[in-house]
Amino acid sequence: MRISVIGLGRLGLVHAAALASLGHTFVGVEMDTERVRKIHDGTLEMHEPGLADLVRTALTDGTLDVTSEPSASLGARAHFLTVGTPELAPNEGFDASYLENALRTLAPSLQPGDLVIGKSTVPPGTAAALTAQLHRESPDAELAWNPEFLAEGTAVRDTLAPQRLIYGVSSPEAARLLDEVYAPILDTGTQRVITDLATAELVKLATNAFLATKISFINTIARLAATSGADALQTAQLLGADPRIGASHLHPGLGYGGGCLPKDTRGLAYFAQQAGVMEAAQFFAQVDAVNTAQRQHITEWVTAQCRGRQEPQVAILGASFKADTDDTRESPSIALAHALMNAGLRVRIADPVVTASCGADSRLEFVRTAEEAMREADVTLVATAWPDYQRLDPEELLSVVRCPLIVDTRNCLDPARWRNAGWEYHAMFDPVMRLR
Ligand code: UGA
């Protein structure tokens, strides 16, 4: 089947390239001509394991075409909308204008019986509004909502082997067409659920808000562990061992970041507020507040450690919001760097893939390696759980820093290795990390 994908960012490009490998023919339409050029050149704008190879193969095989020409969608039967839905402003809900524009641009290429499939994360009601727009512009096409659950770093695997497929549809024909699109995945036994548009929209938002809630929950419990002599990490592990709770997203630390969990949790709070369900709005606002409290807590602790020192310096290891991605959107690590700089400390930051040229933030002092970041550092903070940091040599690094004090905000290092080498090592929720 010929399928079009509108928007070739972190979601759309993975979707097109991954499904092209399953036997469909994809055309990807992207308005940003520079992005299109880079995809053709093989210089992708994003670090996503496995993606570059998939894209190269699909372009060479002719199963993927990438263009800025909107009319290229003509002749496809299924059209995925994979454009972004950024926050309008902090705590003011989602901006649906990219979706509206994508649909407007797509409409002239639609033919009777075509299916437009929204994949972006939106509050319930968005698909209904887009359906009304579609019926005005192209009355014989239909709209469905098919939320995406891929995580960065494992996006290719998650797309090719999703845990479930959710079809928000208004007709059996739409479900049948989606079954054709996903046939190779369904053949492997993947569960698929047919529902209405609003449920498909809400389940995606709710999934991300739930994951955020789990993280804020465990960070709250970890803080209580630190005040009570309990072991924060073991408490988390034992909680996660209860199958009713589950171990995923129950790892305490610096908190969540990225383009999805923070935005979606605040977006759900805004949606609840608009709906007049104030306790829900307050609940999700509190999840967000607990998340940002983690970096404030570390900032206060590090600042207290550096008090009285001459020109104190902090090394931050990791800039991306998590390992295996170059994405710095709402990265807790970058927020931490800013907070420490605002507190008057000099901060050097290193990351295996994020560099100053990635445009993360021009005020930040990016250096190439962890060793460079740690030169003359009074405190070293591991802020992203890159496996590279597990391979650092604590003994060698002793002579690099001014003070051998390391805080592992992601609990990704081996404490014994660092302590045995002579470092003062603290996990994020050690009792010693308590300020008050
Ligand atoms: C998230 C969801 O997990 C995906 O299912 C969803 O499709 C995606 O958002 C999206 O809406 O596009 P992602 O943002 O890639 O995926 O990241 P996660 O792996 O969920 O991690 C989010 C943040 O939580 C990271 O900063 C991570 O370090 C942090 N985290 C994760 C914790 O602090 N503790 C944990 O136990 C797990």
From TrEMBL:
So what EC number does this one have?
A: 1.1.1.22
What class does this enzyme belong to in the EC scheme?
Answer: oxidoreductase
Recorded superkingdom = Bacteria
Keyword Signal among UniProt keywords: yes
The pathway this protein participates in, as annotated, is:
Nucleotide-sugar biosynthesis; UDP-alpha-D-glucuronate biosynthesis; UDP-alpha-D-glucuronate from UDP-alpha-D-glucose: step 1/1
Keywords from UniProt, A to Z, are: NAD, Oxidoreductase, Signal
Indicate yes or no for the key word NAD: yes
Reaction(s) catalysed by this chain's protein: UDP-alpha-D-glucose + 2 NAD(+) + H2O = UDP-alpha-D-glucuronate + 2 NADH + 3 H(+)
Binding of substrate, residues? F149, L150, A151, E152, K204, G257, K322
Q: Which GO terms describe its biological process?
A: polysaccharide biosynthetic process; UDP-glucuronate biosynthetic process
Q: Name one GO molecular function term.
A: UDP-glucose 6-dehydrogenase activity
Gene3D superfamilies under this entry? Cytochrome c1, transmembrane anchor, C-terminal, NAD(P)-binding Rossmann-like Domain
Q: What is this protein called?
A: UDP-glucose 6-dehydrogenase
Q: Which organism is it from?
A: Brevibacterium aurantiacum
